Structure prediction request, 559 residues.
Amino acid sequence: MSDVQNYSPSVKAADHAEDTVWEQKVHFIDSVPRWLAMTFVFVVFVGTWQIVTSLRLVSPIILPTPMETLKDMIFVGQNLLTGGYMLGALWITIKEVIYGFALAIAIGFSLGVLVGETAFGEKAVMPYLVAIDTMPKVAFAPLFVAWLGFGIESKVALAAFIATFPIVVGTAAGLHAADENARMLFKTMGASRMQTLIKMKLPTGLPQIFTGLKIGAVGVMAGAITGEFLGGGKGFGELIRVAASQLNTPRVFSLILYLSLVGLVVFASVVWTQRRLVFWHKEQVGSGEF
Amino acid sequence: MSAAVAQDYAGAPLGTPVYELTHVSKTYARNLVVALEDIDLTLRKGSFTSVIGSSGCGKSTLLKIMAGLIPPTKGRVILQGQPVTGPRRDIGMMFQQATLFPWKTAVENIVLPIEIRDGKAAAKQAMGKAHELLDIVGLKGFENVYPNELSGGMAQRASICRMLITEPAVLLMDEPFSALDELSRDMMNMELQRICREQDATAFLVTHSIQEAVILSDEIVVLKPRPGRIAEIVDVDLPRPRTLNMMTTPKFGAIVDYIRSLLDKGEEM
Ligand SMILES: Nc1ncnc2c1ncn2[C@@H]1O[C@H](COP(=O)(O)OP(=O)(O)O)[C@@H](O)[C@H]1O
Ligand SMILES: [Mg+2]
Prediction:
């Protein structure tokens, strides 16, 4: 209905030709600040949750009330802040994530350079990487446990395994991003292969490399937790598994929420590094994206 | 020995042959396209030569062979007395795209050839010269600006500076201004003429604009396609320095018409 009203200026224009002002149709959402829109969604979500639980549409064992969850979050938070057993578990998971990500970056970047820079890598290594990448990598978890035991090594391995491939692909794609002109220019300057790689191809490919790193950052978290579910140990994933087996759903909820904070920090640190290093790419990426 | 030879050429009078191509042919192995056939060409010191021809007739191939970027299938290329067998320090190049690197400021982009050849310290020392060059092309004040903030014309000016920073003996340019609008292109042409005269540069320009070729050149090499051969080398005896006003004179028009007729003839075959 507002569409129709907004379309009337042509009629007005006929009457007052001198003040033809086209009304711009402003979408309501454009005038709302982001925090308000996000708060709105949050309130609707929690409200629906509250209604569903207080009307007992689902059993409290399946879905605790928002209040129960909040109470448990406070409890877990206190345990974490006071250095309780949960902090120890969280620290184990954080270590798995950090080691796994570091390993994935080192291996992924090296393989990416091999595949993206050498004809041999592209011809002979890439097909294997593609083949392994299409496999469900989580299925390797029991193997890692059998090889590396129930300690953090098997979780680090699975986390790294999952996160490596997007980094390989991102690095290889990034090294191909430089256009013919840039290559020719470096050739005319008599640049060595190493110089071309370091001073031109790698910086040109940073946006793609960081895309790979961001996908890897998400995968590394999933890998560590999957590893803990399937291979035991003393990490945060084990706490979740135990709470779930005891049907302590509020605890599961609050543990997941704290765990996602860790994932968020990992992801944010990649984004932060990208903003420093690839400052020149900001305009093309767009402000709305990470 | 090579330094001594280069020295000889630096001091040589204008008009000395600098570039000599004899019987240069190129067949691309990949698709057996005969891109160039039997090109004989001499560029003299301080001269401005353009090569013109329809798209795909081998202009870029010729330029790449001259620059030592690709080898000719047959024939010889001699620059300053020495055969060209790969990229050379005494060649400066420029392409249709400015190809400035967005993570470097304008002045950092300009000293890049020095950085690649002689390292970071030498590049730092060349900063002063880069500033002078930016001043010459009218980019004073844009030294520390990133390429994202430069217009197309400004970016090409910066890439002229990058070409000049190593003081090359010859300038090879592949359609450097064809991505610019006509007004900017005319201005850049006048600027290029001024720079070439100031530096006694030997210039070789690939273009598909007849006007651009005529206003800038002493000689125009007209290529005919499939395979690329020289149809004719046209002398342009308009007085120097050239001005944009000359483009309206009958003589200018006559030369343009003549070259167009040569190009049309090439197309019929
Ligand atoms: N790298 C290459 N491999 C195979 N054929 C090529 C290559 N580069 C150019 N050619 C062919 O050679 C001919 C001349 O190309 P080019 O020198 O780019 O022409 P121009 O610059 O005059 O448009 C064209 O037919 C083109 O398809
Ligand atoms: Mg071309």
In short: Residues 68 and 86 of chain B are 4 Å apart (CA to CA). Chain B touches chain A through 23 residues (CB under 8 Å). The domain at 3-90+201-268 of chain B is CATH 3.40.50.300 (Rossmann fold). The first strand of chain B starts at residue 17 and ends at 28.
